Amino acid sequence: RNFEGKVPLQGEIDEISRELKQKAEEALKTTDSHLSKCEFKDAIKTAMALAHEANRYLDEKATWKTIKTDRQAAANSLYTAISVIAQLKTLLYPFLPFSSQKVHEYLGFDGKVEDYGWQPQVVVPGQKMQEPQPLFKKLDESIIEEETRRIGT
Question: Deepest in the core among 35, 60, 86, 91, taking most CB within 10 A?
Fold first, then answer.
C-alpha cells in the first residue's frame, strides 16, 4: 500500500536481512536434497522453518511502524520479506501447488510456478504485485469437530 502495490527498491540491508536471505537460499538446496531422497517430512519441515523465520523477521522489523519514521528501512525489510516469500512459494509448491500458484501471481510473476524451475526467484524492484487475498478459509469449529468424528480420531 505504501509503495503503490509494487516491490520496493532495496537499499543497503542489515545483517539480519542478509542472514534471512541466505537461509532462504540454503532452504532451497536442503529441500531439493530431501525431495530427491523422498524425505517429504523433512522437506516440508525445512520450508516451514523458513516461513517461521520470515514471520519472526517481519515481527521484529515491524514495517507498519517503521514506514512512519524510516521509509527506506521499511522498503528494505519489505523487499527482503517479499524475496523470501518468493522462495517459499517454490519450496511449498510440491505440497501446496494451488496456493503456491496464487502467491506466485500475487507477487506479480507471470506463468506458472513450475515454469521458473527449482531455483531462487528474483523479485524486481518496481514489479507490480496483485492485491493479495487470503489463501485459506478459516474453518468453523463445528466443521472441524464433525470431520474429526468422521475420521475417528
Answer: 91
Q: Answer for the pair 54, 81: CB distance below 8 angstroms, yes or no.
A: yes
> Residue 153: pLDDT above 70?
no
Identify whether the C-beta of residue 45 lies closer than 8 Å to the C-beta of residue 82: no
pLDDT tens-digit readout, 13-36: 889 999 999 999 999 999 999 999
Nearest Cα neighbor of 88 from 135, 143, 131, 127 is 135
**Amino acid identity of 105?**
E
* SS3 call for 140: coil
Q: Is the dihedral of CA 97, 102, 104, 105 positive or negative?
A: positive
State how far the Cα of 100 lies from the Cα of 112, in Å rounded to an integer: 10
Per-residue confidence (pLDDT) for residue 10, from 0 to 100: 83
Q: Judge contact between 53 and 23, C-beta under 8 A.
A: yes
Average pLDDT over residues 138-149: 81
